[in-house]
Amino acid sequence: MDENLRFIAVLDELKARGLVSGYVAVAEQLGTNKAAISDIKGCRKKLSLDLLRSLKSSYPEINLNWVIMGEGEMFLNANPSEKSADTLDSSLVAMIKEKDLLIQDQAKEIGRLEERNAQLQHRNTELETELSRGLQSQTDSREFTPQYESQKV
Fold first, then answer.
1. CA atoms within 13 Å, Cβ hemisphere of 110
2. How far is CA 55 from the centre of its chain?
3. What does the alpha-carbon distance between residue 15 and residue 25 come to, in Å, rounded to a whole number?
4. Mean pLDDT computed over 52-68
5. C-alpha span between 14 and 10 (Å, rounded)
6. Rounded-to-10 torsion of CA 127, 128, 131, 137
7. Which of 25, 36, 82, 88 could make a disulfide contact with 21, Cβ separation 3.0–4.6 Å?
8. The whole model's pTM is what?
9. By mean pLDDT, which of 18-27, 70-79, 125-134 is the weakest?
10. How many Å apart are CA 58 and CA 26, to the nearest integer?
11. Which is higher by pLDDT, 50 or 146?
């Protein structure tokens, strides 16, 4: 396997680990374009020193000795998946804590809204009762009006 194929293998491994979404994203990160990555992959173009520098500065855990010479491991640390797993775990814990706070705030807001709703329902019942009494008293006062008074001209 030559350095071009090892370079592509590194990009594929970065993608497999979820560190990049694809060749377009990694090309942007490395300061090039997808066409250059495709040319390297198709062995139409040799891997450049500038691209290797960008790769190392963007992803310091990559072993350039492996990319160039095929010696050693692809990544410098023995268990890169553990490092990315720790980073992922930390990110997930932080995200969960943030969501928990959001849920607590929303639960408090729901409690306030439920209390306000209960108050409004109670007030509505009071108003309906008052309205009903008012209509009843109007009806009662009409019932006691003598008929001869309504016939006066």
1. 6
2. 28
3. 10
4. 92
5. 6
6. -120
7. 25
8. 0.50
9. 70-79
10. 9
11. 50
Specify whether the backbone of 72 is left (phi greater than 0), alpha (psi in -120 to 50) or beta.
left
How much is the CA Rg of the chain, to the nearest whole Å? 38
The pair of structure tokens assigned to 132 is 């009903």
78 Cα distance to chain centroid? 32
Task: State the amino acid at position 67 in one-letter form.
Answer: V
pLDDT of residue 151: 56
Give the containing element (helix H, strand E) for 33. none
- Cα gap 136→62, rounded to integer Å: 87
**Measured between alpha carbons, how far is residue 125 from residues 32, 35, 44, 111, 133 in Å?**
70, 71, 81, 21, 12
pLDDT per position as a tens digit, 92-116: 777 788 788 889 989 999 999 999 9
The mean pLDDT value of the chain amounts to: 84
CA–CA gap between residue 129 and residue 108 (Å, rounded):
32
Residue 47's Cα: distance from chain center in Å? 36
